[in-house]
Amino acid sequence: MGTYARQNIVFARGEGAWLETSCGERYLDFGSGVAVNALGHAHPRLVAALTAQAGQLWHTSNLYRVAGQEKLAERLVEVTFADKVFFCNSGAEACEGAIKAARRYHFVSGNPERWRIVTCTGAFHGRTLTTLAAAGNAKYLEGFGPEAPGFDHVPFGDLEAIRAAVGPETAAVMLEPVQGEGGVHVGSADYLRGLRALCDEAGILLVLDEVQTGVGRSGKLFSHEWAGITPDIMAIAKGIGGGFPLGAVLATERAATGLTPGMHGSTFGGNPLATAVGYEVLDAVLEPGFLDEVQRKTLRLRQGLAQIQDQFPDLVSEVRGQGLLVGIKVKVAPAEVVASALSEKLLLVGAGDNVVRILPPLVVADDEIAEGIGRLARALTRLSQSDVSKSQS
Fold first, then answer.
1. pLDDT digits (tens, 9 = 90+) for 300-329
2. CB atoms within 10 A of CB 44
3. How far, in Å, are 326, 349, 353, 370 from residue 339 at the CA level?
4. At what angle do helices 272-285 and 44-54 cross, to 10 degrees?
5. Where in the chain does DSSP place strands (E)?
6. Do 279 and 78 meet the contact criterion of CB atoms below 8 Å apart?
7. Listing from the earlier edge strand, what are the strands of the sheet with 170-175?
8. Closest to 276 measured CA to CA, from 251, 249, 243, 250
9. Residue 79 CA: distances (Å) to CA of 209, 363, 382
10. What crossing angle do the helices spanning 290-311 and 272-285 adopt, rounded to 10°?
11. CB-based burial, 85-116: b 16+ in 10 Å, e otherwise
């Protein structure tokens, strides 16, 4: 339907951090399908899990118990704050489910007037009408009719603004610990700890959107762990499926009380194929030393990007991020950097606030990080020379 401004390139196969076209051209993937391919492309464990499950059972619906779904849910409960898990297919669905859970909690608790949710400007929670309203980005809402009500938007990182926005109708505060699409803005540990305390004081729920930050990308299993807090409800997707569509809503027993039979559902959510892959992704990320390696690789990547910033001060003004979710704020249109990098067969992803995201798979090797930094330097050199040529002409 023409909804995508696609790059004119078709990939035929992938392995690890690399993608290959049918013509045999190899590209270094530092976009990971927008933070989805946590274990890279064609990871042997994921291929084996999906192949084995495909030969047994694909789909039965949630009218019946799903063994793989229960197995993955039990593991998620074991390693997170959550007591309950609802499976869906995408980040937008996970955020929708989180919103519904927060509102229903107060309804069944005898406070139906509490249905509004405080959210942050610059957020991105998905492309459904409700999640677009939650983010409040006018560009994405234009032309789709009246905005879904119930959201109060405040600046990201401003605890006092959130405190001022909380009122007798507030059900929850919902935000990303790191705003990915919005420009890789990192919420500080003090900010997140303050939010947890504020929500407890006000008797409302803390909802975290960890669709982009979750499942190891931050260097912890989930980003909120860096602040030493836990949410009441959390939306996840992207990395948990390793490339297979899978999302989930995680919640405490208390916060999940409103989602009784018939109150929410998904035909495909948590199907045997998705949960077989999801379990292998989670199992791999939780292996001893894996997250330590992500943190080590993060330092290596940030060191390389600091050199890039020093080398190209006229193009790069800032490097920021958490874990292997990194953004470089540039002084040209992000699309120009993405296009120039593509010429060097390096895949990057644009974001808001004039930022280009760098999202390598969590299994990226040291030499691939070095190669990516080299290709980025050549891409910026081309842009710098182009700017010089323009100024001379």
1. 999 999 999 999 999 999 999 999 999 999
2. 10
3. 18, 10, 18, 20
4. 160
5. 11-15, 18-21, 26-29, 84-88, 116-120, 151-154, 170-175, 178-179, 185-186, 205-209, 233-236, 247-251, 316-322, 325-330, 346-347, 349-351, 355-358
6. no
7. 84-88, 247-251, 233-236, 205-209, 170-175, 116-120, 151-154
8. 243
9. 18, 21, 46
10. 80
11. bbbbbbbbbbbbbbbbbbbbbbbeeeeeebbb
The partner residues of 21 in beta bridges, in order of sequence, read: 11
pLDDT surpassing 80 at residue 388: no
Give the single-character DSSP code of 223.
Answer: G
Residue 256 near residue 84 (C-beta atoms within 8 A)? yes
DSSP readout, 187-203?
PPHHHHHHHHHHHHHHT
- Distance CA(294)–CA(359), nearest Å, equals 12
What's the whole-number mean pLDDT along residues 269-282?
A: 98
Helix (H) or strand (E) holding 241: none
The whole-angstrom separation of Cα 64 and Cα 270 is: 12
- DSSP bridge pairs for 16: 41
Cα 225 to Cα 237: distance, rounded to the nearest angstrom = 17
3-state secondary structure of 16: strand
Tokens 């296009």 belong to 339
Contact between 35 and 352 under an 8 Å Cβ cutoff? The reply is: no
Pairing of strands 233-236, 247-251: antiparallel
Radius of gyration of the chain (CA): 21
Residue 321 token pair: 């991020």
Q: Sign (positive/negative) of CA torsion 181, 187, 191, 193?
A: positive
Q: Kindly report the pTM of this predicted structure.
A: 0.96
Contact assessment for residue 341 and residue 308, using Cβ atoms and an 8 Å cutoff: no
Query: CB–CB of 94/212 below 8 Å?
Result: no
Q: Is the pLDDT of residue 389 over 70?
A: no
With beta carbons less than 8 A apart as the criterion, state whether 208 and 176 touch: yes
The residue whose two tokens read 């930050």 is 213
